């Protein structure tokens, strides 16, 4: 779909367009930071168009204004990333189809529970030569088993999909504190390197790793571990217990990955998407924070309630991921092999008290 231009005779001719166009699908806390990172680079890299479109799930603010209009007027996502300028070349677009129409590089970054619906709306609406990357930490569970979000994108939209995960608390990257990230790719290293160039800045160091499943599973499962860490904090069990829990859980992560029979490499755990993300999430993430509050309230206030009170529209991924992991384990008859994951889910749904998070490992 090359753009056309009018000649002096009034004919429309196709103008070869070798520059890539980027659209960010999602505009939450991390989505907005991703748009900021990318927009700072498209201005510098001649192989990209300057403009970065960002799809906004439209909502009306308490002021009565539409979020997308306010973003375009102020250059700030006043709801999900207040106080941070995104870059003038970020354009908020509330119409999903319009947002992706011309893009050949699609960055998916929404809470994982919305992706199935978003993908079905995009079928037949994107460029055939589009490449995708998912920054989404989460999975879907189908009858046949777990389905990672990158696989959902590839299967529904028929396009290649890399992933980018890492120790990346969005608010820290927004104010340009140094961090690292990992791009997971399948075969095409050139595409992975293009994504690396698009995201890398002096304060955001990105490297590529040929292990999509490993990178994505690390990013996804650590959210369940973060819930466990939050329970331990909320119960005031101390750092020794938390460290023990984390160690136990890291081992569990590897085991879980291994058992899924995916091509997951041990080396991936030493990238930013592995142990580093596990640590940062268990120290400063939203999943940890809400699980801490849940345990302090003795499990009497639901995660939904705490999420809406504490996160102002941002979404937790760990609670639903715990449920999805539980479904996979139950389907395969592995519940007893993974007591940590099982226990986290059972605490989240109120079947067990928060104290069960340490009791299971003492028995
Ligand atoms: N925030 C972080 O620090 C961070 C860092 C790394 C990875 N991630 C991952 O990135 C993904 C997106 O996280 P985020 O922080 O950008 O989002 P978020 O938690 O800020 O979620 C809010 C977003 O969800 C959108 N939304 C609400 N209802 C919707 C609907 N029905 N359909 C579509 N969208 C809807 C909102 O408009 C908003 O853009 C998650 O998988 C998360 O785990 C987040
Ligand atoms: O705030 P959380 O718990 O969603 O975690 C954020 C990031 O995934 C940390 O890398």
Which range best describes the helical content: under 10%, 10-25%, 25-40%, 40-55%, 55-70% or over 70%? 40-55%
Characterize the overall form: globular
Largest sheet: 8 strands, mixed
N-to-C CA distance: 62 Å
CATH topology of the largest domain: Rossmann fold
Number of helices: 15
- Number of discrete domains: 2
Layout of helices and strands:
Layout lengths: L3 E3 L5 E3 L5 E6 L3 H14 L5 E8 L11 H8 L1 E2 L3 E5 L4 E4 L2 H5 L4 E4 L6 H8 L8 E4 L4 E4 L2 E4 H9 L3 E5 L4 H5 L4 E6 L4 H11 L4 E6 L2 H23 L4 H21 L12 H13 L1 H11 L6 H9 L6 H15 L6 H10 L7 H7 L1
Parallel strand pairs: 3-4, 3-8, 4-7, 8-9, 9-12, 13-14
Antiparallel strand pairs: 1-2, 5-6, 10-11, 12-13
Helix pairs in contact: 4-5, 8-9, 8-10, 8-11, 8-13, 10-11, 11-12, 13-14, 14-15
The protein binds nicotinamide-adenine-dinucleotide and SN-glycerol-3-phosphate.
SN-glycerol-3-phosphate binds next to α10 and α11.
